[in-house]
Amino acid sequence: MPHFIIDCSQDILQQRTPNELMDAVYEAADGTGLFAPNDIKVRLQPYQYYTLGTGKKNFFHVFGYIMQGRNTEQKADLSKQICTRLSALLPDISFLSVNINDFEAATYSNKALINPENSDQDRHFGL
């Protein structure tokens, strides 16, 4: 936690490498101080087939999924920091957007939480 999932048009990878783009998202998220650096996960999915509005050629969207507990101001700052960093890397992009969504702690589970030795229900247990 958190997870940042990037959807983008395939042609974006001709402008920047996948690592440059994922590193930009990672570093922007890390720079907010909201997360432990070892917890941040970023992945990228390019699309070869898509439709955009007239005159638009490409897109880049970051879906951020974070554990509940941050306030709206923190989430807005996170979104703006990521968008600002990416804008510098992709100045001519048609669509660039970021949205942040909360995981609900009550309905979240992971490998650590189901470990029978994890009596404190620490979601980082054993990591």
UniProtKB/TrEMBL annotation:
InterPro entries: 5-COMe_2-OHmuconate_Isoase, Tautomerase/MIF_sf. The lineage of its organism: Bacteria, Pseudomonadati, Bacteroidota, Flavobacteriia, Flavobacteriales. This is 5-carboxymethyl-2-hydroxymuconate Delta-isomerase.
